[in-house]
C-alpha cells in the first residue's frame, strides 16, 4: 500500500500529561512500515502556556504545528479533527467522552475507560446514538508481539490447554510523597492500583485464558482482596476462576514494589510461556518452553518497537474508521464492560470506593 492510499486520521488531543506526551510522540514517529497516517490537528490543555510548552517539548518538529487551545471545548468542536484522544485522569473520561461524542467526533479514551461499568455503558450508549467510533485505549492488546502470542496459544496450542496464568504489574510509587491532588492518591480522581495498573494484569489473565473477547468470552468468577490506604487500594489481587474448565488467573498490582522484567507466566498442559518487558503494559519478549520440544531451552520471540507502542492501536483504529466500524474487534465495547464489571466486583470485595459509586 503506498503511503497516499493509507487511511489518515486527524487527531485532537485532550490533556497534556504523561501518556499524552507518549501518544503524540508515537503518532509523529517516522515509521516506514506504518499501516496508517496520523496528523495532530489540535491540542487542548488546562492552560494555553501548558499546551504550548507540551508542543515545544515533545513534538517541536511536527509541521504544520498543532493548534493549541486553553480548555478542551474548541478541540471537541474543531473542524479539522476526526478523532479525540483523551488522556485525562480516569475520573474525567466519562465527561470528556460524552462531550467529544456530542460534537460528533470519534474517540480513543485512555484506560480505565470510566470509574465503573455503569458509566462505561452510558458512554457506549451515547456513541451508538451518535454513530461514532469509540474505544478504550488498551494498547497492549494491539502489540504485534501480543497478537502473535495469542495466535500461538489459542490457534497453534503450543503449550496445550492453558490452565493457569500469573500476571503482575507493580510500581514503586512512593505513596507518602504524593500530594492529595495526585490522580494516584485522590479517590475522586479514581486513584488506586486496580484501575491504574491491575487492569493490565487482568488483561494478561484474560488474553491468555480466553481465545475470544467481549460477549463471546466466558465471564469468570472473581475473588479479590485489596490493601487499602486512605480508602484507596495500594495493592490488589484478583483471581479469575472459570467454572467450566477450572482454569485460573492470579492478577496482581502494587504501588510498593516495581515488578521485575519477567511479569507473566502462562501455564499449559504442554509447557509454559514467560513474558517480559518494562511493565505488563509494554511487553518486549516472550519465551515458549514446550514439553514436546524435548529441550529445556525456550524459544524466544521479540518484535521491534521503535517508540512506546501506542501507534499500533492508532493504526488499527484508522482502519476501523475507514471501514465504517464503530468499535474495534480487538477491544470491543463489551470487553471494556466485561473488565469494568470485574473491577467493580473486585472493589466490592476489596473495599476500595470512589465517590461516584454512591
Ligand atoms: N502514564 C502512563 O504510563 C499511562 C499509561 C497508559 C494509560 N494511562 C492513563 O492515562 C490517563 C492519564 O494518565 P497520566 O499518567 O498521563 O496522568 P497525568 O500525567 O497526571 O496527566 C493527566 C492530565 O490530565 C489533565 N487534567 C485535567 N483535569 C485534571 C485534574 N483535576 N487533575 C490532574 N490532571 C488533570 C491535565 O492536563 P492539562 O492540564 O493539559 O489539561 C494533566 O496533565 C489515566 O487514565 C491513566 O490511567 C497512563
UniProtKB/TrEMBL annotation:
Domain Gfo/Idh/MocA-like oxidoreductase N-terminal: 9-136
InterPro entries: Gfo/Idh/MocA-like_OxRdtase_N, Gfo/Idh/MocA_domain, NAD(P)-bd_dom_sf
Molecular function per GO: D-xylose 1-dehydrogenase (NADP+) activity; nucleotide binding
Gene3D superfamilies with a match to the protein in the record: Dihydrodipicolinate Reductase, domain 2, NAD(P)-binding Rossmann-like Domain
The protein's Enzyme Commission number: 1.1.1.179
Transmembrane intervals: none
Catalysed reactions, semicolon-separated: D-xylose + NADP(+) = D-xylono-1,5-lactone + NADPH + H(+)
Keywords associated with the record: Oxidoreductase
Record bears the keyword Oxidoreductase: yes
Similarity field: Belongs to the Gfo/Idh/MocA family.
The name this protein goes by in its record: D-xylose 1-dehydrogenase (NADP(+), D-xylono-1,5-lactone-forming)
Amino acid at each position: 500500500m503506498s503511503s497516499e492510499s493509507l487511511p489518515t486520521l486527524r487527531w485532537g488531543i485532550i490533556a497534556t500529561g504523561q501518556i499524552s506526551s507518549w501518544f503524540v510522540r508515537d503518532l509523529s514517529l517516522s515509521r516506514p512500515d506504518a499501516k496508517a497516517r496520523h496528523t495532530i490537528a489540535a491540542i487542548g490543555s488546562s492552560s494555553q502556556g501548558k499546551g504550548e510548552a507540551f508542543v515545544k517539548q515533545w513534538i517541536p518538529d511536527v509541521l504544520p504545528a498543532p493548534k493549541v487551545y486553553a480548555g478542551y471545548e474548541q478541540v471537541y468542536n474543531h473542524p479539522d479533527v476526526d478523532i479525540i484522544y483523551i488522556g485525562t485522569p480516569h475520573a474525567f473520561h466519562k465527561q470528556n467522552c460524552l462531550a467529544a461524542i456530542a460534537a460528533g467526533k470519534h474517540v480513543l479514551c485512555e484506560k480505565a475507560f470510566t470509574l465503573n461499568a455503569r458509566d462505561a455503558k452510558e458512554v457506549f450508549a451515547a456513541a451508538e446514538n451518535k454513530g461514532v467510533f469509540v474505544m478504550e485505549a488498551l494498547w497492549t492488546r494491539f502489540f504485534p508481539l501480543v497478537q502473535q502470542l495469542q495466535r500461538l496459544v489459542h490457534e497453534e496450542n503450543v503449550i496445550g490447554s492453558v490452565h493457569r496464568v500469573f500476571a503482575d504489574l507493580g510500581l514503586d510509587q512512593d505513596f507518602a510523597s504524593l500530594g492529595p491532588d495526585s490522580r494516584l492518591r485522590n479517590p475522586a480522581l479514581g486513584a488506586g492500583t486496580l484501575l491504574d495498573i491491575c487492569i493490565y494484569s487482568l488483561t494478561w489473565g484474560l488474553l491468555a485464558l480466553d481465545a475470544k473477547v467481549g460477549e463471546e468470552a466466558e465471564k469468570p468468577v472473581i475473588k479479590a482482596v485489596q490493601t487499602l490506604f486512605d480508602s484507596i487500594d495500594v495493592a490488589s489481587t484478583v483471581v479469575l476462576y472459570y467454572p467450566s474448565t477450572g482454569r485460573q488467573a492470579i492478577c496482581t498490582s502494587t504501588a510498593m514494589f516495581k515488578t521485575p522484567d519477567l511479569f507473566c507466566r502462562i501455564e499449559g498442559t504442554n509447557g509454559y510461556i514467560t513474558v517480559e518487558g518494562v511493565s505488563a503494559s509494554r511487553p518486549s519478549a516472550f519465551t515458549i518452553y514446550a514439553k514436546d520440544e524435548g529441550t529445556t531451552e525456550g524459544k524466544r520471540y521479540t518484535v521491534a518497537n521503535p517508540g512506546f507502542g501506542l501507534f499500533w492501536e492508532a493504526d488499527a483504529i484508522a482502519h476501523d474508521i475507514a471501514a465504517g466500524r464503530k468499535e474495534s474487534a480487538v477491544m470491543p465495547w463489551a470487553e471494556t464492560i466485561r473488565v469494568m464489571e470485574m473491577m467493580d466486583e473486585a472493589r466490592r470485595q476489596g473495599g476500595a470506593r470512589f465517590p461516584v459509586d454512591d
